[in-house]
Every structure is written in structure tokens, then in C-alpha cells.
Write a structure and sequence with these properties.
2% helix; Maltoporin, Chain A; 283 residues; mainly beta; globular; 19 strands
Length: 283
């Protein structure tokens, strides 16, 4: 039998420096400036990522905010070399992601019992590293992807030690440029689902915490030609935290309580009902 083994023998060097500076012009208006310097052998040098954010408080209960940031993400080892156990082939020719992100939002206090946050966001990423499902699966760079979305967060205290929370995200990632012109304008695979998290929690000042959480994910495409998709699904999780002393905490969770059957990747069923318990200690 003739066999060929491919061995990857190389290394990637990377590091980063980050600095942040905040200026308060008035008690109600502040600006923060950030600068991140990445050093990575994949880009033959370094990459500079500036960021700026501003917050303006209006009255005693309303805050406006806006942020901009340049971004950089190098491929991971698994992207370059693959995961043989899962039939995923690496792509050693992947380029790093480079992008710009912007968001603007409002935080509204609801008296003394709650907080409502609304955020509009826009992200543009060049050479986005995308998982390409197939036989075998691999990773690829997408020329340019622009994502527009809206996120709403609500936290409310219903009674003493009883809280409700909800988070909903509308998400629209579109391929605006690629070497394959036939996928331009399509939704990016595996990234286009809208999400909802809804929960109720009981938490005491002594640290006892119990919660029930409903998680919903809408349908999404699994290829960039937008010819195949997976249906949405909902799961219910239970969470528990009990302090056993000043430094020891018991943690427990029961995920997918009703054993919902669904797929996150075509042909690969997700984990059904599962539980986890553990103890953590601080010194």
C-alpha cells in the first residue's frame, strides 16, 4: 500500500500590547481612547488597531454611547492544520482577518427596578475566516463581509431576590465581495441566526443563585450559496450556585432540560440532555 503522510513543521509567533486612556470632559461626558499593537509572523510585521468610545449621560436615567474599533484576528492552529478527528482539513494559506466595527446605543434606567439597553452595530471584515462544511470540511477566507444588527437587553427585578432578563439579537451578515462573484450578496454561512435568551433567576445577597433560561436560535444557512439551511431550535437550561463557605462554591447545571433534538452542523446531532456539577475554591 502506498501512503503519503503530510507533516507540518513550522511555528507562529504572536504577541500584543494594549493601552487605554479615558478622559472625562464633564461629569456627564467621557471619551476613551485605545490602541492595540499586534505582532504576528503571519502578517510580516505588526498590525495597529485603534479604538475610540464616547458616553453622554442625559439626566439621571439615560446614557448615550458610541464606539469604533479596528480589529485583527490571526488564524488559529486548528484553522491552519485542521482537525483530523472531525474530518476537517486545514488551510495553511489563510490570511488574517482585518476589520472595522461600530456601534451606537442607549441605556435607559427603568426606575430602580430595571435597565433597558438598545444597540445598533455594524461590522466590516476583510478576509473573514469562515468554516466551509463538506467532505472533508475546511476553512476559507471570504473577501469582505458586512454585518448589520440590532441588540436589545432587558433586566428587571420582579420582587425581592427575583429577577427576569431577556436578550434578543437581530443579525444580518452579508458577503459583499469575494473572488466567487456568485455568492456576493448572500448571507454568510453559520453566522446569520437571530438569537433570544429569556430567563428568570433567584439570587440572594449571600450568593445563592438559581435560574431557568430559555435559549432560541433561528434557522440559518450552512453554505454560502444559500441553498441549504438548518431549522431553528429552542432549549431550556437550569443553573444553580450554592456557597458552601466563604471560599468554596458548589456549581451545577442541567442543559437541554427537555432533550431537544437538533443539529448545529448537517448530519451531526447536538448534545441532548446533559448535566454538570463542580466545586470551585478561592484562596
Amino acid at each position: 500500500m502506498n501512503t503519503t503522510d503530510v507533516n507540518y513543521d513550522g511555528d507562529i509567533s504572536q504577541g500584543a500590547l494594549f493601552a487605554r486612556y479615558e478622559v472625562k470632559f464633564t461629569p456627564s461626558f467621557s471619551v476613551n481612547l485605545g490602541l492595540r499593537q499586534d505582532f504576528n509572523s503571519l502578517v510580516n510585521g505588526s498590525f495597529t488597531s485603534p479604538s475610540v468610545g464616547a458616553r453622554l449621560k442625559i439626566g439621571s436615567s439615560t446614557t448615550l454611547r458610541a464606539n469604533y474599533a479596528r480589529s485583527f484576528r490571526a488564524p488559529q492552529i486548528s484553522n491552519l492544520e485542521g482537525l483530523a478527528a472531525f474530518n476537517v482539513v486545514g488551510n495553511p494559506d489563510l490570511k488574517p482577518e482585518k476589520g472595522d466595527s461600530f456601534d451606537v446605543g442607549i441605556d435607559q434606567q427603568l426606575g430602580k427596578v430595571g435597565l433597558l439597553r438598545l444597540t445598533f452595530f455594524s461590522n466590516r471584515i476583510d478576509d473573514l475566516i469562515n468554516f466551509k462544511f463538506g467532505s472533508p470540511s475546511t476553512y476559507e477566507n471570504i473577501g469582505r463581509v458586512r454585518t448589520l444588527g440590532l441588540e436589545a437587553d432587558l433586566n428587571v427585578q420582579l420582587a425581592r431576590n427575583v429577577y427576569a432578563f431577556a436578550n434578543y439579537t437581530l443579525n444580518d451578515p452579508r458577503i459583499v465581495r469575494d473572488r466567487s462573484a456568485d455568492i456576493e450578496g448572500n448571507e454568510l454561512s453559520f453566522r446569520g441566526a437571530d438569537t433570544l435568551n429569556l430567563g428568570f433567576a433567584y439570587e440572594t445577597p449571600k450568593g445563592i443563585y438559581a435560574a431557568v433560561i430559555l435559549r432560541y436560535l433561528s434557522n440559518y444557512f450552512v453554505n454560502n450559496t444559500n441553498t441549504e439551511s438548518l431549522p431553528g431550535y429552542s432549549t431550556v437550561d437550569l443553573k444553580l450556585r450554592i456557597p458552601l463557605g466563604r471560599t468554596v462554591v458548589f456549581n451545577g447545571s442541567l442543559d437541554n432540560l427537555f432533550n431537544q433534538q437538533y443539529e448545529q452542523y448537517p448530519g451531526y446531532p447536538a448534545v441532548g440532555r446533559s448535566f454538570r456539577v463542580g466545586i470551585s475554591a478561592t484562596f
